[in-house]
Amino acid sequence: MGASHSQSIGGGGLGGAPASFATAVGSIGNNTETDPPPNGRTSGGSSTLTPWRSYDYVIVGGGSAGCVLAARLSENPNNSVLLLEAGQSHRGDLPFRIPFGFSKASRRVADWQSHTTPQAGLQGRAAYMPRGKILGGSSATSALVYERCPPEDFNQWVSMGAAGWSYNDLEPYFKKSEHYIASPQHPNVDLDVHGTDGPWPTSYSAEVAPIDRYVVNACKSLGLPFNQDISTAQSPLGVTRFIGNIDSKGERSSTATAYIPSDVLARPNLTIAIGITVERIMFDQPSGVKPRARRVLLRNAGDAPLYGITAAREVILCAGAIGTPQLLLLSGVGPTEELNKHNIPVVCPLPAVGRNLSDHVSTGPIPFRAQSDLTYDFLRSKFSGLWAELKWRVFGTGPFSSMMWSSGAFVRSTDPRLPFSRAGEPPPPVNDLTSGSGAPDIELVWAPMAVFDEEFGKPPSDVSGVTLAAIALRPQSKGSVTLQSRSVWDAPLINPNLLAAESDINVLIRATRLVLRVARTEPLSSVLHPKPRAAKKDSPWWLCDVDPDKVTDKELEERLRASATSAWQPTGTARIGASPETSVVDAQLRVHGVDGLRVVDASVFPTSLSGHQCATVVAVAEKAADMLKQSAA
């Protein structure tokens, strides 16, 4: 990234005008005379650096949580707030406005383009793990599904030491953030359980591909109940139409578009700097006193000038389940052996930093040949795609207003009523790791077009299909985020240990067989076109053609280990808890053992959620904003 690509926007910055890095950062901090001490701390509160500009709150990471905090904390004109984002602005890029643009939002400049380390459970493959590198973070690049997840998940958090984080504690913040837009096509949604005055729009998409109702009805034929609304205090089990973060104009809505509109940007006490990477946090540590996070070091490239700023009240890490532990480790907060390995002096030994990484696991795409007039495969045609884009631009309708995943289903892998095995055989053994009887551990999703795993390339232009996938929501396997080096410019080592536990692969085997059953169930089966003779195992269509009563668990396992991947929901690497031995932050999200430093993002989740996590990240940020306001009172 060159110096000309960094900007400072917002009322406290340069009025939205592009600026060079030196100018932009000069408006928020000071160039250091020399590099700071290697241990990232100063003694007795003194510093060898030039006097630094100070802000009350310095928020590191302008993603799903960071934008919420910037907006809420700057509501008080007496608070000076600085939001630092390594990525670009959310404005102007078309895929980040189109609901159906989910697949176009990744593997771009607005994506960190992260990969895991080679995974033994995936035959040594590294899994792709996208993360939003843009204002709004992953809320700007996600599939847009709005889901609060089962109440049991949050009540389990409390039992693990996260006092004050039950579903009842979070429900007011779900409502506070939400602006539900009622749909005449869905009159049975209870408006009392949704927020209607919050900044973040939620709604049903204006259009859904015809194939969607065939899959929904096949799920119902298999015995899955239809669940009108999965974002209530009731169980999300069943098949459902998803509510998404789509505004009244039919555009995607992220926390950047929702929480930082023009009037918020104009606040003189809020500065938002983009294209800036924080290298580490520095601590004051007078003798005999707990270390206090006081300064943040930043630049826009590894060889660019180093700048620094001071946080008068608190530094708030919102860098996500990957970036947050990386920054803590680089700043000397984490497991002693990991810090020593990279010659990083220990500021605060915290064994759980970067540990307990948990991620959902997907089967990868399972495409089925389908009747062409029911799918959106025609959008691959340049003319059809342009026509759909024009319809969306003018009316906010058409295929581009649809979500890639308009519907889904949530089930329990231990449900004896569902066909998880071959006829006459028991299904492979699994451990019930759900948070309660109303919580799922499998999600089924589907896209209204043929999608191939990347090893097979793009589907031919004359192919039409529907693509299903199954996701294991409560993996037993846990991993870690560790450092590649002591430089933030070297990507961290992400090792979620995907499918390391036998139960995890068996959950996916059960889920895959359920997908095959759905495809062989009316009314869906009548519009799909499996070949009477199964394609070869190295074909993307193999699972489309196989008979679910003939394919063996071993064959499914072999396919899954070759195709399964991250479902992009990492959590737990700075989790909430009472003990500094097993957690990173307390129930107030304050990092154990230091002052002036909190974490607000998915890394604090004690466990994986049994669904999509973005709405919960936003609710956590809303609650954290109130905590910070109360602390300052």
Give average pLDDT, whole number: 90
Sketch the major β-sheet.
Answer: 10 strands, mixed
Number of strands: 27
**Strand fraction band?**
15-25%
Rg over alpha carbons: 24 Å
**Shape type:** globular
Question: Distance N terminus to C terminus?
Answer: 40 Å
The count of helical stretches stands at 14
> Structural class of the helix and strand makeup?
alpha/beta
Set down the secondary structure blueprint:
Elements: E1 7-9, H1 21-26, E2 30-31, E3 41-42, E4 54-60, H2 64-73, E5 81-85, E6 114-115, E7 128-129, E8 145-146, H3 151-159, H4 167-177, E9 178-180, E10 200-202, H5 211-221, E11 238-241, E12 243-244, H6 255-259, H7 262-265, E13 270-274, E14 277-284, E15 292-299, E16 307-317, H8 320-330, E17 333-334, H9 336-341, E18 348-349, E19 361-362, E20 366-369, H10 382-395, E21 407-411, E22 442-447, E23 465-472, E24 480-482, E25 493-495, H11 502-519, H12 542-545, H13 553-563, E26 565-566, E27 597-599, H14 614-632
Parallel strand pairs: 3-14, 4-5, 4-16, 5-13, 9-10, 16-27, 17-18
Antiparallel strand pairs: 1-13, 2-16, 6-7, 8-12, 11-21, 14-15, 15-16, 19-23, 19-26, 20-23, 21-22, 22-23, 24-25
Helix pairs in contact: 2-14, 4-14, 11-13
